Design the sequence.
């Protein structure tokens, strides 16, 4: 790796002690030392980071945050954010290990003058290398910033922040993750954050910019195919997806400076591995849950795929406005996906490869896995597990490394075939699960819970008589965040959005603390706290 440097600055010294390091099994350590080109001290530093993440209460909290489908009594337990993160970590480890082996081969060839250097290894060497433990750490950490109720909670908190709390930056799960790692989690020490290495901190920066960095950038100024993912959908507000709030923007810049070969607005190699592993785990493992919960109906899924395949030619000639008006008709949503993909990602999108992906997913999912309803028996479970193993291995074998990737891609990505297959698998989630009436009904209630919590805590802190009795952690965060916001306004006013007067800055500091507090809850904590806060 390029660096294992920890946070710099007088207040960010490394305060580690031996008792903080959990020992590994000797055989595992010996295996890695035998096959690993890194120094023992470098391996040790990254292991410490991984253990710090595993022992973080924010990581343990993910076991009680819903992934997509809530727990049910049918078959094995449904995925939650913790089990999802562990599976992302497993996928990331395999991808990183394969690439690290290529890097090691390249280094050996370069040193001995034997075989020709591996071109993949050459690219990885120039970009700073890759590391299995750093990639695992990134996977462990990538969902730490998810609030209660997952993406629904993320959207709700973002809306409340921008429309009611006077916080133009809003809320974003990726930026919240970086904030947890660098500011909120403390290990019980007298300094902010987990004091992770630069490599691990950089590995969670999926969208390495702030929201304000892209404010005012419209589709007229930057076409969809020329902008990074998550940019351009909200010209007035800035980037929809971003990895750091203004309060952590300077630390993000310091971290990225440790990787001089990584271009602006690019992920590090380990971050790209984590991002890819997340896509694979979401596309495949979450389908396990949908099958077991019985929310995927064979007739609907097969009907969508068969209708598009049968009428692909006619659908390609259809008017776009007409297609959007009848999107619920079988086959139409797939055609809209194909067109949207060609518009946004012409660097990789291909209609014929898209059709091949539809055929494969249709045969493997709609015409095989879903042919018989899941009944919880051994045969049904073996069939689900076989589907998962087959697809995970297929997508792992599609990984490629690119020295100069497209602005909407990363240095480590799927080849054209795998990219389209993940696209179609994720379409199944969006079309046949997320729009289900039962899920929509539950989400309306969850949204109301978060709205009441944010408004309730905001009103409590505004109460001149009772504000001092608000939760202690919330009061401390209000104090610290307000001080940090005012200090940033003096040091780097260009980073802040919104009013710059003292009242406006204090409002932003308090609002960010409220969001930090609510976002740190589990699903059940949110429901319980809501019941207490709103009980008449």
Sequence:
């Amino acid at each position: 790796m390029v660096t294992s440097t920890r946070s710099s600055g007088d207040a960010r010294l490394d305060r580690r002690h031996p008792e903080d390091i959990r020992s590994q099994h000797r055989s595992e350590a010996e295996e890695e030392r035998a096959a690993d080109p890194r120094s023992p001290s470098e391996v040790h530093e990254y292991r410490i980071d991984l253990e710090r993440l595993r022992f973080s209460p924010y990581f343990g909290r993910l076991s009680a945050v819903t992934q997509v489908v809530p727990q049910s009594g049918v078959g094995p337990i449904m995925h939650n954010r913790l089990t999802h993160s562990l599976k992302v970590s497993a996928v990331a480890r395999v991808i990183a290990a394969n690439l690290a082996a290529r890097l090691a081969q390249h280094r050996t060839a370069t040193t001995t003058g034997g075989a020709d250097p591996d071109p993949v290894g050459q690219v990885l060497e120039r970009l700073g290398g890759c590391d299995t433990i750093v990639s695992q750490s990134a996977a462990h950490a990538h969902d730490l910033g998810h609030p209660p109720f997952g993406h629904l909670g993320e959207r709700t908190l973002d809306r409340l922040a921008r429309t009611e709390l006077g916080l133009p930056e809003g809320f974003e799960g990726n930026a919240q993750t970086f904030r947890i790692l660098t500011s909120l989690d403390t290990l019980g020490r007298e300094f902010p954050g987990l004091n992770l290495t630069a490599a691990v901190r950089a590995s969670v920066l999926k969208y390495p910019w702030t929201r304000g960095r892209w404010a005012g950038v419209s589709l007229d100024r930057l076409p969809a195919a020329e902008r990074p993912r998550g940019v351009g959908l909200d010209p007035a507000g800035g980037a929809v997806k971003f990895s750091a709030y203004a309060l952590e923007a300077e630390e993000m810049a310091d971290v990225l400076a440790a990787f001089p070969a990584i271009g602006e607005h690019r992920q590090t190699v380990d971050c790209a591995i984590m991002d890819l592993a997340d896509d694979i785990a979401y596309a495949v493992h979450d389908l396990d849950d949908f099958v077991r919960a019985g929310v995927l109906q064979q007739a609907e899924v097969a009907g969508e795929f068969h209708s598009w395949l049968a009428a692909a030619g006619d659908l390609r000639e259809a008017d776009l406005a007409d297609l959007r008006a009848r999107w619920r008709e079988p086959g139409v949503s797939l055609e809209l996906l194909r067109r949207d993909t060609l518009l946004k990602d012409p660097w990789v999108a291909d209609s014929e490869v898209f059709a091949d992906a539809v055929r494969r997913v249709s045969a493997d999912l709609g015409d095989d896995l879903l042919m018989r309803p899941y009944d919880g028996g051994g045969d049904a479970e073996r069939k689900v597990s076989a589907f998962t193993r087959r697809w995970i291995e297929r997508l792992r074998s599609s990984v490629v490394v690119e020295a100069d990737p497209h602005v909407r891609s990363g240095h480590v990505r799927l080849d054209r075939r795998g990219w389209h297959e993940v696209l179609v698998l994720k379409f199944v989630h969006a079309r046949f699960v997320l729009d289900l009436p039962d899920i929509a009904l539950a989400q309306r209630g969850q949204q109301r819970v978060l709205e009441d919590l944010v408004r309730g805590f905001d009103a409590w802190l505004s109460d001149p008589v009772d504000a001092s009795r608000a939760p202690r952690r919330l009061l401390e965060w209000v104090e610290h965040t307000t001080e940090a916001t005012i200090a940033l306004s003096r040091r780097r006013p260009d980073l802040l959005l919104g009013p710059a007067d003292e009242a406006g800055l204090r409002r932003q500091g308090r609002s960010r603390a409220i969001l930090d507090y609510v976002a740190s809850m589990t699903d059940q904590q949110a429901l319980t706290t809501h019941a207490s806060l709103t009980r008449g």
